[in-house]
Design a protein that fits this description.
Elements: H1 5-23, E1 41-46, E2 51-55, H2 62-74, E3 79-82, E4 88-91, H3 95-98
Antiparallel strand pairs: 1-2, 3-4
């Protein structure tokens, strides 16, 4: 039987929160690999020709993973920390911030 969206969300959220808990208090990157999903890795990219070499495959669950992470951020369970030169790191809020 296929898992419900709530079951999928629960599993992915648990993976994300466990990953952040293991690195607390240091902000870290969070990718779909945290939940065991495969991602496309860009080995090289030429911005002029827009050609690049990749490795791996796009997992269809990646969109659901991204939506789950965004929900955790917007609900205050996870802090999002934009990096000055691109990318984002994430961290768990402190107990004082949640009070």
């Amino acid at each position: 039987m296929a898992k419900t969206n709530i079951e999928r969300f629960d599993e992915m959220s648990a993976d994300i929160l466990a990953h952040l808990y293991n690195s607390f208090p240091i902000p870290v990157g969070v990718s779909p690999e945290v939940s065991g999903l495969t991602v496309i890795k860009y080995l090289s990219f030429n911005p002029v020709s827009e050609e690049g070499k990749t490795e791996g495959e796009h997992d269809p669950e990646t969109e659901f993973f991204d939506a789950s992470l965004n929900w955790l951020v917007h609900s205050g369970f996870v802090w999002s920390n934009p990096r000055p030169f691109g990318g984002t790191t994430y961290s768990l809020p402190s107990a004082e911030a949640r009070a």
